[in-house]
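Batch job 17 of 40 flagged for manual review because the log was empty.
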Amino acid sequence: MTHILYVLYLWLIFAPVFIVLTIITAFVTVVGCLLGRERVFSYYPGMIWSRLACYLALCPVKVQGRENFNRKQSYVFVANHQSAFDIFLIYGFLGAHIKWVMKVGLSKLPFVGVACRAAGFIFVDNSTPKAAARSVKEAEQALKKGFSVCVFPEGSRTETGKMARFKKGAFQMALDQYLPVVPITLNGPYDVLPIGSLNVKRHRMEMIIHPAISTDNMETSHKGLLQLSNQCASVIASGLWEEYRVS
């Protein structure tokens, strides 16, 4: 009975309210950024929208480790990618002004794509080496302006809830800019909305923000890149719930 009531709630209340909130958030973001207030409007409307999405889905959220980074410094945040709800969890509850590094296909989403472009988020285009290099340069420009970036190094959502191999782009950015990397462990979003499903489920979610990893003394060679990637993957994996760990 509880499941049936939740499904009815999702389609009769959550979905319509979420759509309206998405349209309002996109409009406010675009207008605010066009008026020259990018630092404010690329963050706060999306943060509020993300929190409301979690609250509306009736999913309890637990956050650990906000004390592990300085809000006045730029970082490369990296997290495991379980679900579309990862975005709501990080954007809503991290507490840092971030620029998302996301797949170029997301730029085609109604309202969301336009707002993301206005907010200066970086769309990764891997269709050609030249396009991919341009995406990295855009991310590095955002870092130079004092923003942080957030990347899912797996590249796409997990099929099983368990973490896949990390790609190196995020770590190359960190080494190039001599910026610390903050690993983030996400638990629970996979159970809320697994890939390929439109059926949101009520489930607790957790975000663990680990201490920043300095890149000051790391080699910028392939060896240093691999070392940083492996270290971050190990830290993130250490915080995963048992059901998400690779056996």
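Reviewer: the log was empty due to a logging misconfiguration, but the result itself is present. DSSP finds nine helices and seven strands in the chain. Unflagging and moving on to job 18.
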